[in-house]
Specification:
It contains no helices and eleven strands. The chain starts with 5 loop residues before the first strand and ends with a strand. The strands form three sheets. The chain has a four-stranded antiparallel β-sheet with strand order 1-9-5-7, with no helix packed on it. A four-stranded antiparallel β-sheet has the order 6-8-2-11, with no helix packed on it. Strands 4-3-10 form a three-stranded antiparallel β-sheet, with no helix packed on it. By secondary structure, it is an all-beta fold. 0% of the residues lie in helices and 53% in strands.
Amino acid sequence: DYTNGKSIEIQNGLKVTTYNTYNLMVKSSNNDFISQTSSATIPISVLHVEAGLNPSKSNVVINGPLTMSSTDQTLIARTATNPQTLEYDIRFFIPANQIETPIEAATYTAYIYFTIVPN
């Protein structure tokens, strides 16, 4: 999969209901995917994330795709102050040839956090 790239999209994977402006931040739990069965790791920076909104809204700015890191990054910024519920599609992907081979066969884990910060 990772030689040719891998992509997973979650339709309406993130639902936000609010009256206020906000920044939706994204970050990983650490700098690496970690193997559960060995000491092997894969840099989290091979993973990218992007959001989509259909239909698009003039009061929403979507940044990306973003390269994952353990530092907060603004994925979505909403500038309106009216009541609104928005459902975002979220896509995680690893582009082709991003992982140096060979890698140890294992299940690698990292946690991704989404945080809403009011403006």
